[in-house]
Design brief:
Order of helices and strands of chain A: EHEEEHEEEHHHHHHHEHEEEEHHEEHEHE
Low-confidence stretches of chain A: none
Order of helices and strands of chain B: EHEEHEEHEEEHEEHEEEHEHHEHEEEEE
Radius of gyration of chain B: 21 Å
Largest sheet of chain B: 6 strands, mixed
Shape of chain B: globular
Number of helices of chain A: 14
Structural class of chain B: alpha+beta
Largest interface: A-B, 14 and 16 residues
Number of strands of chain A: 16
Oligomer: heterodimer
Number of strands of chain B: 20
Distance between the termini of chain A: 47 Å
């Protein structure tokens, strides 16, 4: 078989691998992406599971796709369209509900119904989160300096970081320290009294984590969520038209345009190693592809423990990879619907169905869901984040039919 | 859903322009007619009826009500007599303005505070430890402003108390068109005028009663566009336009102290402690960085700029609310936040924030104007507010 050498070979055609391929190709490298499955995107795929029903199988909303990536790769030109998903509806067991709408006045009035104080606190909380998100954002894209190193470059970086925090001022710095260390439940308790509001906001502090709203550190995840809101100003938040797979498709299209080669149904069996250096990959088909650079878009366990022979890596490193915890706590249920659901708390078809529907009636409810998971069980009453994609992008389901995406944690 | 005010059944039927605007979660008429000019002139030459129900209103009662309010606002509430009304800003701990409104003493221990933004949480926080009850009565209380030179005569027709003795910034309880109401001699127009406060359920009959009495005097309803021109002429600042409330400002530079808003006269250091006192005392020592004054834009200068491109002078047809740079030579020394052509003064006017060195009356500055797609500068002069201040605004009617 003909052997060819690339500048870079990327294992895994998920959205991270594809972004990487696009940037490397943009820098002039000769790039190859290898994807095991017939579809690109990894966890960001749209697939037709039942005839006519297209599902964002795993990831279902776009939130933290960096706006600079959208700009750099010209993803809009490659077909990325993000549709707004603006409200959050929380049905409650007592047949009441709470909705946070896209419109400020409408949200205020709805919160006021539950607590006049919370209606006002909500604005101030939002302002503080925005300020803190602005403060944290520049640090996110920074390679962290090594606090133990005395190298001048490193020291300068530490000094820059120190200055950044000093410039925040004591009030914001103290709020930030609280956020970094507290649980979202405790943090929200300082601001709000409406249980459903606290719970629904706390849910964004635990989503995708193996934590409960009373776990320390979850307050920071709240802030992370607010960063998505800032990018929301650039319309980087919402539902991708055509489902999340459309995001991967747009990135792949951009990567191809920039010269990257992408192969699907090309599972990599192992990473080739010569003298402690990765020099290429071997496919399950037996084909070997050589490259100056091997990039893995897979998780570290599969990358280092499955695709490489542990003999080829330092023992301590292998050990630390083994100890690296990857714990999933969430699942996804995709339903095909003959008609739209009607909630007992707010019956009928209304705008509340077009946004997110959050099953998060109280902080205690969420914490108990976590308790089940903590002891190795499925949550008996899980936190759910639900959307009806066909109400946002009608072509996701056959005409007149609908589909529901349920994120379960 | 956005709500109509308690007067909506009447205002909706009258609003030919259908240019509804948002105000605190309510919809209110921008203008009733297609052009707002007649509504403006009604305010200045006859009388106009303006629905101001969306104002936030708080009822403050209890043995500590006076103490609480004295803690909240920089004015001295102990000097607020029964049935007196005070205009006042209130500040955060750093002495930056959160909101402004009017405070009415309804009884020894009962007050009503109006606000432009929701303030219940702040009021509750400031009342910590005091024996006071704060009720949000925004929804239950409708408010109608009757403004203009004929307003007293019209209101007198339908009121059971004499309004001749009612002084500027005083109130009285009365029956208006048979409906129990509070009448305050207040308003946002800088003219003779009254605000009538009634239970929301009685709003429509109140409207009908006043409209009927006013027909002979040229009374018409006026919307926000006309009101905006009148309040600029009166030099009255508008929240979110002329200043940003301190609790909403994302950066420090956006906050303003009372001194910086030309409201230094409301700050009384000869009373007990109040929120922001220390910061304001320090600011008074060093002098405010900014001042808020009027600008008169020179007609000749505007005319010249337009003549250069072969056009007659262009003037704003409605009040504008954008930030416009103000220069002194090459340096930007401030920014105007509202402006309009004053029909009654025949003068182009603006309200501007100016660095203190460039703020004394008479200072010659330049304001940016866009003439035929190009940025130009028109000559302007700093003047004291209000631009328009007719004696009838404060006068008590002594004639029979």
């Amino acid at each position: 078989m003909k052997r060819r050498e690339y500048d870079a070979v990327i294992v895994g055609g998920g959205h991270n691998g594809l972004v990487n391929a696009a940037y490397l190709a943009r820098a002039g490298l000769d790039v190859l992406v290898l994807e095991r499955r017939p579809v690109l995107g990894g966890a960001a795929v749209t697939e037709e599971i039942y005839p006519g029903f297209h599902y964002s199988v795993c990831s279902y909303v776009v939130s933290l796709l960096r706006p600079e990536i959208i700009q750099d790769l010209e993803l809009a030109r490659h077909g990325l369209e993000i549709l707004p998903l603006e409200s959050t509806f929380t049905p409650l067991p007592n047949d009441d509900y709470l909705v946070r709408w896209a419109d400020h006045d409408q949200t205020r009035r709805e919160l006021y119904r539950h607590s006049p104080r919370d209606a006002e606190a909500y604005d101030e909380f939002g302002k503080l989160m925005l300020q803190l998100a602005m403060a944290v954002k520049p640090i996110l894209g920074m390679a962290p300096p090594d606090p133990g190193s005395m190298r001048p470059g490193n020291l300068a970086k530490m000094a820059r970081l120190g200055r950044h925090f000093r410039d925040l001022g004591s009030e914001k710095l103290s709020a930030l320290v609280k956020l970094m260390t507290m649980s979202s439940a405790d943090y929200l308790d300082e601001w709000f009294e409406t249980e459903a509001l606290k719970a629904t906001m706390a849910a964004s502090g635990i989503i995708g984590t193996f934590l409960g709203p009373r776990s320390p550190g979850t307050a920071y995840v709240l802030l992370h969520h607010y960063m998505g809101e800032i990018d929301g100003a650039f319309r980087a938040w919402g539902f991708a038209r055509g489902g999340t797979g459309a995001v991967s498709e747009a990135i792949a299209s951009a990567a191809r345009r920039l010269g990257a080669e992408i192969r699907t149904e090309a599972p990599v069996e192992r990473i080739l190693n010569e003298d402690g250096r990765a020099v290429g990959v071997a496919l399950e088909s037996g084909e070997e592809i050589r490259a100056r650079l091997v990039v893995s878009g897979l998780d570290p366990k599969r990358t280092f423990l499955a695709l490489l022979d542990p003999d080829e890596l330092p023992t301590e490193f292998v050990d630390s990879i083994r100890r690296f915890r990857i714990r999933g706590s969430s699942g996804k249920v995709n339903l095909a619907l003959t008609e739209l659901p009607s909630f007992t708390a707010l019956p009928g078809v209304g705008p509340h169905l077009r946004g997110a529907m959050s099953i998060s009636p109280s902080v205690e409810y969420l914490e108990r869901a976590y308790d089940d998971a903590k002891y190795g069980e499925f949550s008996r009453r899980p936190y759910m984040d639900i959307i009806i994609p066909s109400l946002i992008d009608p072509v996701m389901a056959p005409p007149g039919k609908h589909e529901m995406s349920i994120f379960v944690q | 859903m956005l709500r109509g005010t308690p007067f909506h059944p009447r205002t909706a039927a009258l609003c030919q322009a259908q240019n509804w605007r948002r105000w605190a979660g309510y919809i209110v008429a921008g203008s009733y007619e297609l052009l707002h000019d007649r509504e403006y002139f009604a305010i200045r030459t006859a009388a106009a009826l303006i629905d101001v129900s969306p104002l936030y209103k708080y009822h403050v009662t209890g043995p500590d009500a006076e103490r609480f309010l004295n803690r909240l606002i920089p004015r001295d509430v102990t000097r607020c007599a029964l049935h007196q009304v005070l205009y006042t800003p209130w500040c955060d701990q750093a002495g930056k303005v959160i909101d402004d409104g009017t405070l009415s003493r309804l009884d020894a221990d009962a007050f009503r505070l109006t606000a432009a933004e929701p303030n219940l949480r702040w009021l509750q926080d400031v009342s910590t430890g005091l024996d006071v009850t704060i009720g949000d009565i925004t929804q239950g209380l409708a408010a109608l402003a009757l403004q203009g030179p004929a307003s007293r005569e019209i209101l007198q027709q339908v009121s059971d108390v004499s309004l001749n003795e009612l002084g500027f910034f005083r109130l009285t309880h009365a029956r208006v068109a048979g409906i129990p109401a509070t009448i305050s001699r207040t308003g946002y127009t800088g003219d003779l005028g009254f605000e009538i406060w009634v239970e929301a359920a009685k709003a429509v009959p109140l409207w009908d009663g006043i409209v009927q009495a006013g027909a002979a005097y040229g009374l018409i309803p006026a919307g926000m566009l006309a009101l905006d021109v009148a309040r600029i002429e009166a030099g009255l600042p508008l929240i979110d336009v002329d200043y940003i409330p301190a609790n909403k400002a994302l950066i420090e530079e956006r906050k303003s102290s009372p001194f910086e808003l030309d409201l230094g006269w409301t700050v009384r250091f000869d009373k007990g402690p109040f929120v922001g006192r220390r910061a304001l005392a320090a600011e008074r020592e060093r002098g405010p960085e900014w001042q808020f004054h009027g600008l008169e834009i020179e007609w000749d200068s505007v005319e010249r700029l337009y003549a250069e491109v072969g056009l007659p002078p262009g003037l704003p047809t409605t009040a504008w609310r954008t930030s416009v740079p103000i220069y002194s030579g090459a340096e930007q020394v401030g920014y105007a936040t509202s402006g309009c052509w004053s029909p009654v003064l025949k003068q182009y006017i603006a309200l501007a924030h100016l660095r203190s060195g460039w703020a004394s009356p008479g200072t010659r500055l330049e304001m940016e104007v866009t003439v035929e797609h190009r940025r130009k500068r028109a000559e302007a002069r700093v003047v004291r507010k209000p631009f328009y201040d007719p004696p009838r605004k404060r006068a008590v009617e002594t004639a029979t």
